[in-house]
Specification:
The complex is a heterodimer of chains A (556) and B (112).
Chain A: E1 6-11, H1 15-25, E2 29-34, H2 37-47, E3 51-57, H3 65-74, E4 83-87, H4 90-98, E5 103-106, H5 112-136, H6 146-159, E6 165-172, H7 175-182, H8 184-201, E7 207-213, E8 216-222, H9 227-235, E9 250-255, H10 264-278, E10 286-288, H11 291-312, E11 316-325, E12 332-344, E13 348-350, H12 352-362, H13 365-387, E14 393-396, H14 399-402, H15 407-417, E15 425-430, H16 438-450, E16 454-460, H17 467-472, E17 477-480, H18 482-488, H19 492-507, E18 512-514, H20 520-529, E19 533-535, H21 545-554
Parallel strand pairs in A: 1-2, 1-3, 3-4, 4-5, 9-10, 12-14, 14-15, 15-16, 16-17, 17-18, 18-19
Antiparallel strand pairs in A: 6-8, 6-9, 7-8, 11-12, 11-19, 12-13
Helix pairs in contact in A: 2-3, 7-8, 18-19
Chain B: H1 4-10, H2 14-20, H3 25-37, H4 41-49, H5 53-69, H6 73-87, H7 95-109
Helix pairs in contact in B: 4-5, 5-6, 6-7
Classes of the chains: A alpha/beta (556), B mainly alpha (112).
């Protein structure tokens, strides 16, 4: 029970007075007592912000109550704890309020119900204030949250309309690898250390800083250009592992001398665009947002604006790439992968390599995924009706889809509406989607499989999932990323990588699917290595439905 | 034996004192006993006789707080007057106050 009670410190030298207060408060609070100021400060030092309230008598032996109040107010770790002063001296009451006390209780004490009410009121006010404060600060790093940071940026602009300001986005190189290798608690502590460093450096550049997400920080500062120096100061003596050997590498995207007529979030989007361009690069550690990036930004804006029309006018076209089982004497068509293309009325065919990452970032990917699922499902139905062929099609399920509580229902509805069975729709989940919130992903994948869907893990080998994670994740096939296929025939090492993936798959008792297979030689080697299914230009590039039909009719 | 009834007869504002103790009679009586046990008035008296009015004020002030919280009215009246005089470090003859306090105190102590 005690755990849930708020903690209160009574600083009062007279036993009788303490006992009266304790008797009033004992049911609602966990009580700490001090008979003099020094003891009070010791308790405060050990309990700190655990305490919800301090009741402070002004007449204390050794150290006066006002001195105690002063030390509390001077200590940033303590000065947000409310203090109620206990006094019989009217003239001291005002002084105490000036010194930072929240309220006072006179002696002789008023009725116990009055004491109770006053104490509860102060505790509540304090907690409301804490709630406001805690949303102003990021829980992990104690830096400003985005909303408050943007507000302060606006304040800054109002006070100094003519200052030349830079919007800077900062990231730690390969942070996701650090997190994967050393765990979340280590990477969190790294972020805390890095945040403290950033906070310390802010006065040097007349700037302020916000923790945006993961390892991304944004800074609004007066224009400066000795970036190398600043990068060095940010990373000095902060290491990526416990042995303190490898210093962190910091990267920056800078939008210089911001145009104050544009929205604050757009300014930082520009800094982020520059940062993203060099993210994880080993050669570049900063990039300045320029006209080229501005063009890219404009292009992306156009795509985002065009998205709703593209959906309603069916500008997105689903192509199909066949997958063949190669383990038999002759390759046999087993399924196809649905791949989306954008036939933009003005810009022509747009590569998914451009719009998919963009839609993922802007939160549009779920709508696109749903569109593709529906298109593919209706296509499968048509093939079944027209050609009496049952060729399952794999569709992409993005990470964000997995967090949608209605996912299973949505997919089941699509299957039902098109008169299909769940085995007709294969679900591809990229390995990198499975690195965070592993439990949620595992639960969701289990639910999908229970509904009858089969799960293929896409891009296997390129993410950072551990073997233990893969062991826990229910799955039905591993897809070997095309980068391994491409490299396999130029370096011995990556041939080993394919073998390892095939070994993992056979341990999990699931087939492997090789992507990006381009030559007869590759097919032969993959077959020898034990790869089951192959997809790639050797058999066919992704083709529109009309061309895909040829594969259906060729099969006996 | 100290009881709520004889404290009331003594002149204590028992209703008020009990209210502070959330009407816990046992606690109230315990605290009055405790006050009697740790009698600091001799220290106050000694400080006054030694003309250490600063020290005397502090003791009187603390005593006033406790006596006030216990609503021991006969004692409160006299300690209140003493505290106000001592607050301004008034050099005066305190013997009258001391006598009154000691008389009231012994009447209270006699209730035990």
């Amino acid at each position: 029970m005690n755990k849930n009670k708020r903690k209160i410190l009574i600083v009062e030298d007279e036993f009788v007075n303490r006992e009266i207060l304790k008797n009033i408060l004992i049911d609602d609070f966990e009580i700490f007592e001090a008979e003099d100021g020094e003891t009070a400060l010791e308790i405060l030092d050990s309990k700190k912000s655990d305490l919800s309230l301090i009741l402070l008598d002004l007449f204390l032996p050794k150290m006066s109550g006002l001195e105690v109040l002063n030390s509390i107010q001077a200590n940033p770790e303590l000065n947000n704890i409310p203090v109620i002063v206990l006094t019989s001296d009217k003239e001291l009451e005002v002084q105490c309020l000036q010194y930072g006390a929240s309220d006072f209780i006179s002696k002789p004490y008023p009725d116990s119900s009055i004491i109770k009410a006053r104490i509860n009121r102060v505790v509540e006010l304090f907690e409301d204030r804490q709630t406001i404060k805690s949303t102003e600060r990021d829980a992990l790093t104690r830096l400003y949250t985005k909303e408050y940071f943007y507000k302060y940026v606006a304040d800054e602009d109002r006070h100094n309309p003519n200052a030349n300001m830079d919007a800077i986005a900062i990231g730690i190189r390969s942070f996701h690898v650090i997190k994967e290798r050393f765990g979340t608690s280590f990477s969190d502590s790294l972020l805390v250390r890095f945040s403290k460093r950033l906070k310390k450096l802010m006065p040097n550049i007349s700037g302020m800083v916000c923790h945006l997400e993961a390892d991304t920080f944004i800074v609004y500062a007066q224009h400066f250009d000795n970036y190398e120096n600043f990068l060095e100061e940010m990373s000095a003596n902060i290491f990526v592992e416990k042995e303190n050997k490898t210093p962190i590498k910091v990267q920056m995207g800078i939008y210089q001398n911001v145009d104050k007529s544009i929205d604050i979030d757009v300014r930082f989007e520009r800094a982020k665009t520059a940062l993203n361009k060099i993210r994880d690069s080993v050669v570049k550690n900063y990039l300045i947002f320029d006209d080229k990036l501005k063009e890219k930004e404009l292009f992306e804006e156009e795509l985002i604006e065009a998205f709703p029309t593209a959906i309603s006018e069916k500008q997105f076209v689903v192509f199909y790439q066949p997958k063949f089982n190669i383990q038999g004497d002759t390759p046999k068509l087993v399924s196809a992968e649905a791949l989306v293309r954008w036939k933009h009325p003005q810009k022509g065919l747009i590569s998914p390599g451009i719009f998919i990452p963009l839609f993922e970032e802007k939160g549009l990917i779920q709508q696109l995924d749903l569109y593709v699922w529906k298109e593919a499902a209706s296509q499968i139905r048509k093939w079944q009706e027209k050609y009496h062929k049952h060729v399952p099609v794999s569709v992409n399920v993005s990470r964000i889809d997995l967090f949608d509580p209605t996912l299973v229902e949505t997919l089941l509805d699509i299957v039902k509406e098109n008169g299909l069975e769940t085995k007709d729709l294969l679900l591809e989940i990229t390995e990198s989607a499975c690195t965070d919130n592993v439990d949620v992903i595992i639960d969701k994948t289990n639910a999908l499989r229970q509904a009858g869907f089969k799960i293929e893990i896409d891009d296997f080998g390129t993410g950072y999932s551990s073997l233990s994670m893969i062991n826990k994740l229910p799955l039905d096939a591993l897809k070997i990323d095309m980068i391994f296929i491409r490299n396999a025939f130029t370096s011995e090492n990556d041939n080993k990588m394919i073998k390892i993936i095939i070994d993992i798959a056979s341990y999990l008792k699931v087939p492997t699917i090789a992507e990006g297979v381009e030559s007869k030689e590759q097919v032969t080697v993959l077959k020898e290595l034990g790869c089951d299914i192959v997809q790639g230009y050797y058999f066919s590039k992704p083709v529109p439905n009309e061309e895909f039909v040829a594969f259906l009719t060729a099969e006996k | 034996m100290l009881t709520v009834e004889n404290l009331r007869n003594y002149g204590a504002n028992v209703t008020e004192g009990l209210q502070r103790c959330m009407n816990n009679e046992q606690l109230y009586l315990t605290l009055v006993n405790r006050f009697l046990d740790q009698n600091t008035f001799p220290d106050l008296k000694a400080a006054i006789l030694a003309h250490d009015l600063e020290k005397a004020f502090h003791i009187a002030h603390s005593l006033k707080g406790v006596i006030g919280n216990l609503s021991l009215s006969p004692l409160y009246d006299v300690i209140y007057q003493m505290t106000e005089l001592l607050r301004n470090r008034t050099e005066t003859d305190y013997s009258n106050y001391i006598q009154r306090y000691e008389l009231s105190y012994s009447m209270l102590a006699a209730l035990r």
